[in-house]
């Protein structure tokens, strides 16, 4: 009770405490920065905004709640004003920790106790952050084993060709480059990671028109669309600048020969770029009927029928692609298990099939809607997500199991999926286009919403609401064998087109 009372008093008088300003140093290698801070309860507090900026972390403010998420490619931390609990998310798994002191708010900015925040920030950084209470200063040190981070791409024009410089934070173990017959330069760096937003938004140069990048488990592939043809290429590392350098020759030149061992490793990595495993997730099942439509039709039966038709179509049209079903009979599968099934199968694409419905029946709402993972932008997207997420009530201990998946943590989780958002959105567009072109279902567009079933799938993933069971015309089509087959055929066409685009951009045949 005494501890709670002290926290309440601290909150009440935090405005007075912030009168004791304190500059907080951060030493990062040879450079130093100074951050805003204060002293409260005999502890130094540091500005979360200043600290995250100095460390190169990104921030996301959660509206009127005052909460702030600080995140990197490795994970995120959610801070709540006047609260000692923080949420650390890594690999889409959020965990809650309690600090000895609460986060303070002043003037719209949050402050964290400097003595206790270092270990948590270290979890999402590429190095170690420590705070020295004697000097009242932070020190940031890069880890020796840090995966090389691609930081920049530069080009040079030469008399006999061009040079592409790929800068990294440290040297990788292996690199490879190959010119494609399609006018592309493919560069593989292993191991490596990159800033998704920065690398995929590089401006065109005199050598290439654009760069496409994909992160694989232990490598990065860069695909440069070249502006002119070259006869040969040579790749090597420059230890003086921590760069991978690719020489592009207008005249024939010998290539750098990799050792057989490294070549085998790179060839194995290239298999990750093939869209060779597709996971079909028929929504609901077993004790969870899903939406009950006009005439008593159950969503679980419609989704299973469409899922089986889709599996059969894919096996016929793409015989070399493995097709995995999260369920192939009327059984209940928990939402989190569906993503786990997809990951265990090394899935490259995840399609969750559902049917929409309105609370009152019959209803005029109709059409096809396809979603990818992000917090809902519209009231309708939020309603639909809530409807599908309600399936968790059929799971044992669901309140404990899903307690961390509130709206705030959903934002953090969707950030962890940022590497797949671009591809998920494109796949969703193709489904809308191809299904509506061969069925009477109208194209209601692509949406963003927080579907729990999509959270665990570490791959491009979409949820398809194939039509409204509460609409007389839609339900007639959805429950018919002809209708189910046509929907499956439309999704198959979208998959084939998506696969062709995906592998053209990111794979070497």
Gist?
The chain is α+β, with helices and mostly antiparallel strands. It folds into three domains: 2-142, Copper amine oxidase-like, N-terminal domain (Copper Amine Oxidase, Chain A, domain 1); 149-269, Immunoglobulin-like (Sandwich), CATH 2.60.40; 277-506, 3-Layer(aba) Sandwich (Aminopeptidase). Strand 3 (37-40) and strand 4 form a beta hairpin.
Radius of gyration: 26 Å
Q: What order do the strands of the largest sheet run in, or round the barrel if closed? A: 3-4-10-9-8-7-6-5
CATH class label of the largest domain: Alpha Beta
Second rung of CATH, namely the architecture of the largest domain: 3-Layer(aba) Sandwich
Question: What fraction of residues sit in β-strands?
Answer: 25-35%
What does it look like?
This protein is of the alpha+beta class and 509 residues long. It has three domains: 2-142, Copper Amine Oxidase, Chain A, domain 1, CATH 3.30.457.10; 149-269, Immunoglobulin-like (Sandwich); 277-506, Aminopeptidase (3-Layer(aba) Sandwich). It has 15 helices and 27 strands. The strands form five sheets. The protein has an eight-stranded antiparallel sheet. A six-stranded mixed sheet has the order 23-22-24-27-25-26, with helices on both faces. Helix 7 crosses helix 15 and helix 12 crosses helix 15 (481-506). The N and C termini lie far apart (66 Å). Mean pLDDT is 80; it is low at 1-16, 253-258 and 398-418.
């Amino acid at each position: 009770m005494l501890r709670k009372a002290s926290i309440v008093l601290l909150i009440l008088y935090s405005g007075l405490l912030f009168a004791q300003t304190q500059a907080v140093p951060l030493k990062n290698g040879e450079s130093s920065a100074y951050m805003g801070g204060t002293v409260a309860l005999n502890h130094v507090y540091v500005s979360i905004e200043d600290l995250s900026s100095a460390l190169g972390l990104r921030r996301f403010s959660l509206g009127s709640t005052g909460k702030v998420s600080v995140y990197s490619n490795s994970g995120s931390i959610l801070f709540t004003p006047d609260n000692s609990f923080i949420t650390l998310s890594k690999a889409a798994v959020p965990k809650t920790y309690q600090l000895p002191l609460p986060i303070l708010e002043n003037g719209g900015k949050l402050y964290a106790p400097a003595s206790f925040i270092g270990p948590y920030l270290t979890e999402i950084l590429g190095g170690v952050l420590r705070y020295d209470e004697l000097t009242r200063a932070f020190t940031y040190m890069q880890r020796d084993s840090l995966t090389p981070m691609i930081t920049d791409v530069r080009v040079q024009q030469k008399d006999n060709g061009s040079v592409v410089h790929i800068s990294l934070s440290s040297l990788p173990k292996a690199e490879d480059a190959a010119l494609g017959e399609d006018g592309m330069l493919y560069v593989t760096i292993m191991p490596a990671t990159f800033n998704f937003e920065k690398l995929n938004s590089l401006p065109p140069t005199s050598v290439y028109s654009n760069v496409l990048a994909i992160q694989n488990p232990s490598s990065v592939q860069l695909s440069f669309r070249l502006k002119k043809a070259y006869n040969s290429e040579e790749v090597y590392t420059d230890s003086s600048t921590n760069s991978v350098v690719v020489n592009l020759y207008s005249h024939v030149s010998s290539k750098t020969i990799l050792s057989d061992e490294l070549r085998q490793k790179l060839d194995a990595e290239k298999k990750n770029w093939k869209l060779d495993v597709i996971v079909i997730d028929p929504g609901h099942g077993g004790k969870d009927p899903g939406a009950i439509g006009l005439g008593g039709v159950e969503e679980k039966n419609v989704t299973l029928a469409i899922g089986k038709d889709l599996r059969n179509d894919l096996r016929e049209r793409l015989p070399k692609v493995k097709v995995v079903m999260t369920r192939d009979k009327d059984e209940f599968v928990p939402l989190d298990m569906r993503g786990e099934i997809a990951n265990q199968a090394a899935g490259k694409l995840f399609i969750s099939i559902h049917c929409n419905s309105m609370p009152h029946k019959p209803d005029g709402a109709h059409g096809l809607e396809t979603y990818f993972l992000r917090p809902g932008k519209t009231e309708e997207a939020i309603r639909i997500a809530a409807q599908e997420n309600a399936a968790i009530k059929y799971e044992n201990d669901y309140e404990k199991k899903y307690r961390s998946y509130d709206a705030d943590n959903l934002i953090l989780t969707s950030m962890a999926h940022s590497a797949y958002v671009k591809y998920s959105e494109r796949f969703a567009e193709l489904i809308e286009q191809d299904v509506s072109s061969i069925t009477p279902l109208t194209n209601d567009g692509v949406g963003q919403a927080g579907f729990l079933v999509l959270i665990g799938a570490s791959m491009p993933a979409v949820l398809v609401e194939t039509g409204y069971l509460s609409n007389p015309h839609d339900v007639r089509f959805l429950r018919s064998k002809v209708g189910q087959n046509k929907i499956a055929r439309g999704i198959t066409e979208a998959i084939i087109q998506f696969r062709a685009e995906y592998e053209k951009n990111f794979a070497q045949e």
